[in-house]
Every structure is written in structure tokens, then in C-alpha cells.
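Whiteboard transcription, Tuesday session. T.W. wrote the C-alpha cells on the left side:
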């Protein structure tokens, strides 16, 4: 094996490791996000909270969702960039492409969930603003 091939293989392994760690952190981050949104929704519909606290909780949902939305878009862009970089190496090495369908599917699914929770939060702001 020549030096160029060794270098490409090392770079490919590094990309794969970074992908694995990024994907792991991404999933853990969104587990925390969806857990926090579930807790906020639970507080939102408790009977012992006043209208003002329900309104404040309602504002938190879209604000936190905006941050999650930005993270989701950036992660999806990063996955596409990594896919392009790995495909260049795969072509040069003559190996089969690594499937990124899982990461792209998860980022799309979380994107949809974040948008839904953002809209849900805005809807609750509209409901509780007049109470």
C-alpha cells in the first residue's frame, strides 16, 4: 500500500469517527430537547398554574425551538459536507459509498418535530395571551 492510500484511509477513518461522535451527540442533544419540551408541556397544562406562568412557559417553547432549529439545520449541513468529503475519498480508493441515510433521516425527522413544537408553542402563546 502506497503512502497516498494510507493517508486517505487514515483520513477516512478520522471522518468516520467524527461522524460517529457527532451523530451520538446529536441524538443525545435532541433527546434532552424533546424531554425538556415534554416537561414544559406538562407544566403548561397543569391546573395549578396561573395564566401568567402558562404564558411564560408558552414563550419558552418557541424560543428554545428556534435554537434547536438552528442546530438541526447546521447539523444537516455538516452531514452533507461530510458526505461530500467522504465520497471524494471513496472514489479515489474505489470503495463503496458510506450510507448517510440514517443521519439525514434523523435530522429531517427532528427538524419536523422542532417545527411542530415551535408552532405548538406559538399557538399556546395565542391561547394564553388573552387569559
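and on the right, the sequence the group agreed on:
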Amino acid at each position: 500500500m502506497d503512502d497516498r492510500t494510507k493517508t486517505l484511509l487514515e483520513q477516512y477513518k478520522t471522518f468516520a469517527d467524527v461522524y460517529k461522535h457527532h451523530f451520538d451527540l446529536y441524538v443525545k442533544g435532541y433527546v434532552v430537547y424533546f424531554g425538556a419540551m415534554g416537561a414544559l408541556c406538562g407544566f403548561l397544562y397543569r391546573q395549578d398554574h396561573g395564566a401568567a406562568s402558562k404564558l411564560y412557559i408558552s414563550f419558552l417553547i418557541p424560543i428554545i425551538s428556534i435554537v434547536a432549529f438552528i442546530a438541526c439545520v447546521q447539523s444537516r449541513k455538516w452531514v452533507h459536507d461530510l458526505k461530500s468529503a467522504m465520497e471524494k475519498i471513496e472514489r479515489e480508493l474505489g470503495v463503496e459509498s458510506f450510507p448517510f441515510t440514517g443521519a439525514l433521516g434523523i435530522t429531517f425527522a427532528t427538524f419536523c418535530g422542532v417545527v411542530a413544537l415551535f408552532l405548538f408553542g406559538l399557538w399556546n402563546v395565542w391561547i394564553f395571551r388573552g387569559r
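Someone added at the bottom: The mean pLDDT is 92.
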